[in-house]
Amino acid sequence: MSDLLRTPFFPLYQQYEGVRCIDFGGWELPVQFSGIQKEHEAVRERAGLFDVSHMGEFTVRGEQAEAFLQKMTTNDVTTLVPGQAQYTLMCYPDGGVVDDLLVYKLEDQHYMLVVNASNIDKDWAWLQEHMVPGVSMKNDSEETALLALQGPLAVDIIGKVTGTDVFTIEPFRFVQNAEVCGVKLLLSRTGYTGEDGFELYVPAEKASAVWNGLMQAGEVHGLVPAGLGARDTLRFEAKLPLYGQELSPTISPLEAGVGMFVKLNAGPFIGHEALLLQKNEGPARKLVGIEVLERGIPRPHYPIYAEGVQIGEVTTGTQSPTLKRNLGLALIDSKYAALGTPLEIEIRGKKLKAEVVKTPFHKRTRTQKTPTQGADQA
């Protein structure tokens, strides 16, 4: 796999005996270090450290930067204050999704966009195609390493290696130039696991110092390195969408259940007209949770049936590591989306009984804030 891209953390992988790397969108990345089940449980109960440096980072600045991003994304950029981030989407005119992303407001008319690794080139081209005077963009992806420290003990671990009061950082807020493990970086209380945690945007040349410092600080807390496998099962249980599965050029944000990040009253954006029509008419398809009631695990693209007719397909499915149930997310005809609706799923040529179940499959218990305890992540 020598022709694959590697993150700044790649040389550190080899110290872990159980590490197994795969080709992930042109990157050589660890699918697991000690086992997906172990890593999943560690994040739910203690903490896990993920290398997600394959993600892309663009900076957008200029006197028209806010207006430009308001046109390009579905959420309301004008509500952001410096030090705040928001989840949003870019759409095509027909309402299909170009990508889902985070927008960080660094200061007035200065933003950072964090985009999916497989979409870096596509997103850059899309933004450049719609560029206007008064806006400049820079692709900082190669100079930026990204770590995600996730789990209920993440705040305790990071609190040991920084002078920043991490307990008071609110969800979707961040601190620029925070010093962590002796390195200045952007520290954000965000994540993709359904647990509390932080994402650390690190200068690429300082990456190993931060990884090693966090792993050392987290040793007594049971911190483990975690790979793509656990990242996927964790986000799945929390019903966090994955581009290419729950979101795509042919699946709209409303169909995927992330309509709360589409602010139709905030002004026109690309795809506004199509999504407004879809909202008024009601989306024809809906993303739902399903459970297979017989022995069988749902996998992406397995067909779903109701009343003898195919009504959709699985987008993501597995045996839930937390719940030990055979669960899936499926995009189906909205007429069959009510909880408890009986369905059938075709697995290896055989139709098995299934039903629509409540999502998210896992939602962490939120504790009250105290003077020594930080806010929970949204």
Automatic annotation (TrEMBL):
Keyword list, A-Z: Aminotransferase, Methyltransferase, Transferase
Domain GCVT N-terminal, chain residue ranges per copy: 17-265
UniProt binding sites for substrate: 199
Polar residues compositional bias, start-end: 368-378
InterPro entries membership: GcvT (IPR006223), GcvT/YgfZ/DmdA (IPR028896), GcvT/YgfZ_C (IPR029043), GcvT_bac (IPR022903), GcvT_C (IPR013977), GCVT_N (IPR006222), TrmE/GcvT-like (IPR027266)
E.C. no: 2.1.2.10
Domain Aminomethyltransferase C-terminal residues, every copy: 285-363
Keyword Magnesium attached: no
Domain of life, source organism: Bacteria
GO MF entries: aminomethyltransferase activity; methyltransferase activity; transaminase activity
Region of interest (Disordered), ranges: 359-378
Biological process, per Gene Ontology: glycine decarboxylation via glycine cleavage system; methylation
Gene Ontology CC: one annotated term: cytosol
Reaction(s) catalysed by this chain's protein: N(6)-[(R)-S(8)-aminomethyldihydrolipoyl]-L-lysyl-[protein] + (6S)-5,6,7,8-tetrahydrofolate = N(6)-[(R)-dihydrolipoyl]-L-lysyl-[protein] + (6R)-5,10-methylene-5,6,7,8-tetrahydrofolate + NH4(+)
Signal sequence interval, chain numbering: none
Protein function: The glycine cleavage system catalyzes the degradation of glycine.
Oligomeric form and interacting partners: The glycine cleavage system is composed of four proteins: P, T, L and H.
PANTHER family: AMINOMETHYLTRANSFERASE, AMINOMETHYLTRANSFERASE, MITOCHONDRIAL
Family, as annotated: Belongs to the GcvT family.
Annotated protein name in UniProt: Aminomethyltransferase
Organism encoding this protein: Paenibacillus xylanilyticus
Classification lineage: Bacteria, Bacillati, Bacillota, Bacilli, Bacillales
